[in-house]
Amino acid sequence: MGGGGPGELQPCEHCCTPEWLRRHDRAPAGKPCLVRVGDAWVPGTLVWEPRARPDGLWWASVTHRAHGREVTETRSQHDLRKR
């Protein structure tokens, strides 16, 4: 766990599973990524779904900026890259 004293601790990479977040009533922390928007890759953050979908692909809720505003949408692994 990182940061602060009791009651101020934040999830770390070890305990930041969807199950831990649900148990502790925390919103998932987004991980940095690059999102394909048209032909460009833009900075964003993502939260992966807990398992691959029946199509075999991993999907994530992704937040990024487009046309001057923040956008959140669901994207497949094909539109995401590690940052």
Structure overview:
Helix content is 7%, strand content 42%. The protein has 1 helix and 5 strands. It has one helix at residues 18-23, and strands spanning 31-37, 40-48, 59-66, 69-76, 80-82. The protein has a 5-stranded antiparallel β-sheet with strand order 4-3-2-1-5, with no helix packed on it. Strand 1 (31-37) and strand 2 (40-48) form a beta hairpin.
List its salient traits.
1 helix, 83 residues, mainly beta, globular
What is the global morphology?
globular
Number of strands: 5
Cα-based radius of gyration, to the nearest Å: 15 Å
* Secondary structure category: mainly beta
The whole-number mean of residue pLDDT values reads 80
How many separate helices? Answer: 1
Strand order, biggest sheet? 4-3-2-1-5
**Which strand-content bin applies to the residues?**
35-45%
Largest sheet: 5 strands, antiparallel
Q: Which residue ranges are poorly predicted, with pLDDT under 50 across at least 5 consecutive positions?
A: 1-6
Secondary-structure element string: HEEEEE
In percent, how helical is the residue content?
under 10%
Distance between the termini: 23 Å
Describe the protein's topology.
Blueprint: H1 18-23, E1 31-37, E2 40-48, E3 59-66, E4 69-76, E5 80-82
Antiparallel strand pairs: 1-2, 1-5, 2-3, 3-4
